[in-house]
Amino acid sequence: MKQMPEVIIGALLATAAWSIIAMFSQGKVSDLKDVAGPAATIFASAAAGIVAYMIGRSQIAVAEKNWQTANEKIVLDLFDKRLGILEQMRSAIGEVMRSGHCTDLTLYNFDVATDRLPYFFGEEIQKYVRGIRNAMIDLELANKMMENQLDPERPKWIQRRHDLWIKVVAWYEESPRLFAAYLKAHQKA
Fold it and tell me: Which residues contact 46 (CB under 8 A, 6 or more apart)?
């Protein structure tokens, strides 16, 4: 319900007060003092009710704004934590992209970044990240296996290394679409 302007409220109160006075006095001025007390009480209680109503609406509006502010702070905190996880993963994947190797330290850094994943992201993200982690491990295996120049399966390992490196690096293309729902702001700044 929209808030009524004070002029309309005043006019309604005045009309109600004079209607009550006219109804009880029925043209007799001597009875006016018998009606004045009850009319003043009705008028005062109506005015107090309207003031209480307006104050109550103001308090509700303030409470709604406080809730909205608190909710936005929670959303911002969640965004910061999710973005931190994403940046740590990006750093580890960037190392794999630059060197073509997934060292124990790189895998450790990736694991540190992703150990909080279940608390901040859904199952689809967790499944995707597990796939990237497995590709990183398999990439290092392929690197080790293709070092043997005499191995007849070396071409297979070279191709496997290429395919796994492409899968890991595809993270840069796939992650924005996958993580977007978790990182979108609710309001423009």
Answer: 13, 16
- The reported pLDDT for the residue numbered 45 is 77
- Residue pair 145/156 in contact by the 8 Å Cβ criterion: no
Return contacts of 142-146, CB within 8 angstroms, 24+ apart: 143/100, 143/101
90 within 8 A of 176, measured Cβ to Cβ: no
DSSP secondary-structure letter at 26? T
The two three-digit tokens of residue 98, written as one number: 């630059």
- Taking residue 129's Cβ as centre, other Cβ atoms within 10 Å add up to 20
**Domain ranges (residues) in the chain:** 6-183
Nearest to 106 by CA among 72, 132, 145, 71: 132
Q: What is the pLDDT of residues 58-98, one digit of tens each?
A: 888 888 888 888 888 888 888 899 999 999 999 999 999 99
Cβ atoms 154, 128 nearer than 8 A: no
∠ Cα 127 128 131 (to 5°): 90
CA quadruple 145, 133, 97, 99: dihedral sign: negative
Mapped onto helix, strand or coil, the DSSP state of residue 188 is coil
pLDDT for 1: 47
